[in-house]
Here is the input.
Amino acid sequence: MKTQTENRKLVVIGLDGGSFSVIDPLIKEGKLPNIEKLIKEGVSGPLLSTMPPVTGPAWVSFMTGKSPGAHGLFDFVRPAANDYRRQIVNYNDIKSETLWSILSKNGKRLGIINVPMTYPPPKVNGFLISGMLTPGIESEYTYPPSLAQELEKKFGRYTLDIWWQHYGPDTIRTFLQDLMVCTDKRREVILHFMQNRNWDFFMAVFIGTDRIQHALWNFLVPTDGQKLSKIEIEIRELIIQYYKKVDDIIGSIVDAIDEKANLMIMSDHGFGPLKGKFCINRWLEESGLLTYDPTKIKKFRLKAKIGPFLRQIVRKADPLNLRKKLTARISKNPERMGAYSFLNCIDWSKTMAYAASNTEQGIYINLAGREPGGIVKPGKDWDEARDVVINRLKYIRDPQTNEKLVSRIYKREDIYSGPYVNNAPDIIFFLKEGEYLANVQPMNYLFEKISWKTGTGTHRMDGIFVGYGKDIKAGLHIGDAKIIDLAPTILNLMGVRIPDDMDGNVMTQIFADEFLNDNPSQYVKRPGGVSFYQQKNGIYSDKESAELEAQLKGLGYL
Here is the structure.
């Protein structure tokens, strides 16, 4: 295998939430010349995400070449031990080896910048700056740890992310300006390390595409017949300026690599419009499948009414200091820790089914032996309970069109395989193929209209893939790529044998004939089995957990 002795280089650019439904129209308008060039002279096509297309598990599937059933993460959160409440996941929850480990062990030098789900930063042969789900730069967010001091000394205070929910309809321009500043800084950091460090594999992720599309999809991609006002047109132009900036950075990255290097652009999922939210636990309550404790739910709903006013004060008065004070207060009160605290309000002795997370689009049966207060027996009773929920889901109607709201329903074993399938929700569903999302909070209504709070855009299954370089074909469009295919494909390009337990396949269709003939895919048996790679959980302190809950709320996920 020739590539094992050659100094091959690969750059991967991640555009979080990147979607051809945004990119293609901007290319037609002449706004993205660098991406257009890479598409015309390389390979491109949709990239199928995980099901459902959730940021956390999608990035982990990219890193491992495995589906969630094989790497163990299905959402941003997981059930706490012997508790209904959820805990936020981290890199150490990944129950599989990742690209970073495999490449490092094979002597490849890495440079990793802001890839989500890389906190706490793993030890690599090179350097790593962690990405989304990092509590903050007060935590140890780089490997080696000394890199954080180098970053601050050369570039000032490092910004990991921009939380769009911390802005509002009256501060859209500020939101976009802050994203611009963050992205300009990211350009400086990327080009500095590309030009001043030795590396074989380099990867950087831009998060602004996702944040804009969640908050401002209705500006970016107006619905048919929608006429934008003068102010809305001005905001759309600012949004386009951001995409032009990202395109310009991509051009700078291409200019910074030599002719022997290959390049990929990819995203964790695609994007489309959000038309509303469906309050799934309210529906389960109305269906007689979930019951709340009357006293607890009354107190919870009262706090929920007050919450928006407090958040508005925090945003307008003194965001940084107040946020720190609120975080400190939360961290001293363990009963308030854990995402989705409304779960404490459910009367589990009278509940057959519940939904625990906005992002996983799933329903759990209150199963005896798994849930602390489970009432449904495993086996036949469990399967019958799932059938009851599924049959009732089929009759929910879109309030605007009277069409069926639920477009797909799966039992977990229908879409997942691997040793961790039992960690998935019992039922997974799609609402109008993503046009609606589930809201698990205990509302007293079924449907929620879109607003700044909900955002106007959300995830879709098809992300993007672009490949370019001397080992990549030119002018080819593909239609069958999956996010789990990227890890084995990257290993093949880097001349590294592929672990035989990856779910993804090498994308041989993208390779130039000469490379394909000289570099057949080679595999190695994974030593020690899956359990060998299990790592300890629970590394977040109470303060870090509170910071991360604030982050996920700031990104519209909680």
